[in-house]
Amino acid sequence: MRAATIRAHGGPEVVEVGEVPEPRPGPGQVAVDVRAAALNHLDLWVRRGWPGLHVSFPHVLGSDVAGVVAEVGPGVDAPRPGDAVVLSPGIGCGRCPRCLAGEENLCRRYTIIGEHVAGGQAERIVVPARNALPKPPALSFEEAAAVPLTFLTAWHALAGRARVRTGETVLVHAAGSGVGVAAVQIAKLLGARVIATAGSDAKLEKARALGADELVNYETTDFVHEVRRLTDRRGVEVVLEHVGKKTWEGSILAAALGGRIVTVGATTGWDPVTDLRHVFYRQLSILGSTMGSAAELALVLRFVVEGKLRPVVDRVLPLAAVRDAQALLADRAQFGKIVLTP
Ligand SMILES: [Zn+2]
């Protein structure tokens, strides 16, 4: 089958589209014919590699997948061949106390499709049957593939970890990113006032259309100053941090007394400076969040079906254009998700 793979860790040049052996489903697994697979910043991290990441090359990229079940392994009674599905990107062991509690993203053996195991930017992918959720019929395959990782990440961070309440103000960085697009909508759904930042006025207008109340262009203004101005100098109750080094110090300064900063990623670097005086004196809570549970994804999909959350597809490209797609993502040239079709 054809797949977007990396043959080694490195720059854009290690990404190839070529033939790899077609995977077959084992016990408890299903094989899915991929119709659409979205990109994430995680793809770029995996391509570059990090200490502790061990993959077997060639490694198939891609965490967000929608498709049709082609074949089921022994012991699988659902889904059935022919079912349209969207994949929950996280895989827990299924047996430990965390998994049994429905908190598989806290499982010690937790992994993400396309990270430690083969991904879905390919013609076919094999996953545990429990990861294959019914695709909402109202969504195209491209739209369905644009939901899982970023909406799950934003949902668990804002609803699960930061516990955003009605009337609070939430700062969402990089509102044009996959996580940003999801976070603006989720914070609004939870009843918050949303201050969104982006690097261009065109992206900010799109963020407004998603529900953002206040817009801050971080290229032309100082976002900390703007946040203080927009909150009567109080700061925001919650910051959704996924940018990392470039924004971290500002995120801490933008938080209100007793505020919560929830960090889900570090696109611009994971080793920022933290002035602890601001953390203890202003009694900030710094919360980590990674992914979410399949149950949370099912809830998100319900809100999508009800029209309360909507995936945003920036563009659809053929699988062969994966390098171009990664370059667009690296340059932040998109608003929402870039989706590949095999
Ligand atoms: Zn487990």
TrEMBL record:
It comes from Anaeromyxobacter oryzae. It holds the Pfam family ADH_N. It comes from the Bacteria. Gene3D superfamilies: Medium-chain alcohol dehydrogenases, catalytic domain, NAD(P)-binding Rossmann-like Domain. Residues 10-340 form the Enoyl reductase (ER) domain. InterPro entries: ADH-like_C, ADH-like_N, ER, GroES-like_sf, NAD(P)-bd_dom_sf, Zinc-ADH_QOR/CCCR. SMART domains: PKS_ER. This is Alcohol dehydrogenase. Keywords: NADP.
